[in-house]
Design a protein that fits this description.
This protein has 321 residues and is an alpha/beta fold. The chain has twelve helices and eight strands.
């Protein structure tokens, strides 16, 4: 007898991306809202729009790597024009506004100096234009002669599937060596603590080892493209720590699913969460979570709006008022 569609879905291996694992580590309650209840806000921010545009400019510029010199004009043309085309996962159309459209849309934020970044937004764009040609030139000098950008993957790990997209894979075809690159458009570069067990890079490493089993991954590197900085993952034992972290997160997730108990983890991150009313950018689902931290950048307290009661939550599960 053929399986029903529901049975097929039930028996299908669990698929997890790094972003979903990261969200689970931050707050299982938010994970439940996103991935179980499908409450996914479609709200844009300056950081998101600018990040998407910079990633797209680098993706398109890297298509010529190995065949031509990558110049400032290669990235500047995409920044000025924006992008409309097929999304990186091959689904739906991708629309990315141009730099001028982003500046117009977020005019006040653009000129407001962020104390957490030593550069203004205009200076960050100048850094970006200088960074791109220098970065690609350096990779050629290091012996990399080919590149693959926005590489989609889906690989088995234990009883689940890990999937995602890698910003850039650089190849030294003569020596069969690889560098994994992830672009970051953050305000600050990662400090040492962020590099001791970078789970995102470990997932990418697993994927590349699966795709290129006979090649050597000689470097995993974060490029902070608006700051002109880079950080290689070199901490001793980082892969083992990440493997332990990954297995624990998967175990925790299966436990949450079995008990259907998704506890919140209130922290200062609540201030930027799409489900917290403290987040000024959130509109669609701003009142979904009552357990948020009352911490704000101007009132740094560690109290919560409502305390989590696991027993009470279980008793009311499934009832709607």
């Amino acid at each position: 007898m053929e399986e029903t569609q529901q049975e097929v879905k039930k028996n299908r291996p669990l698929r997890l991306s790094y972003s979903s694992l990261d969200k689970l580590s931050q707050c299982p309650y938010a994970w439940d809202l996103i991935y179980n209840q499908k409450k996914r806000p479609d709200e844009k921010t300056l950081a998101l729009d600018l990040g998407n545009l910079c990633h797209k400019a680098l993706e398109i510029a890297s298509l010529g790597f190995g065949a031509q010199e990558i110049t400032q004009e290669h990235v500047e043309s995409v920044m000025k024009a924006g992008f409309f085309g097929t999304g990186k996962m091959g689904k739906n159309d991708e629309v990315i506004p141009s730099l001028s459209q982003i500046i117009d849309k977020y005019a006040f934020e653009w000129i407001d100096q962020d104390p957490k970044c030593i550069y203004s937004y205009d200076e960050r764009i100048e850094n970006f234009y200088r960074y791109a040609p220098q970065f690609f030139k350096k990779q050629r000098e290091l012996g990399y002669d080919s590149a693959c950008s926005e590489v989609n993957f889906e690989i088995p790990f234990e009883d689940i599937l890990l999937f995602g997209s890698i910003d850039l894979i650089l190849l030294n075809t003569k020596e069969k060596k690889i560098k994994i690159v992830d672009y970051k458009t953050s305000k600050k570069a990662y400090d040492h603590n962020k590099l001791t067990s970078p789970l995102q890079m470990y997932v990418y490493l697993l994927a590349v080892n699966h795709m290129y089993p006979d090649w050597e991954v000689e470097c995993c590197e974060y490029q902070f493209v608006l700051l002109g900085e880079e950080a290689a993952v070199t901490s001793k034992g980082w892969q083992k720590r990440c493997d332990t972290k990954l297995r624990k997160l998967i175990s925790d997730l299966l436990s949450y699913k079995e008990t259907d108990t998704w506890r919140p983890i209130p922290s200062p991150l609540c201030h930027w969460c799409n489900y917290c009313c403290h987040n000024e950018s959130s509109k669609q689902y701003a009142d979904e979570c009552p357990y948020y931290s009352l911490w704000t950048p101007t009132n740094k307290i560690y109290e919560v709006n409502m305390k989590w009661d696991a027993d009470k939550n279980q008793k009311t599960k499934g009832f709607f008022f």
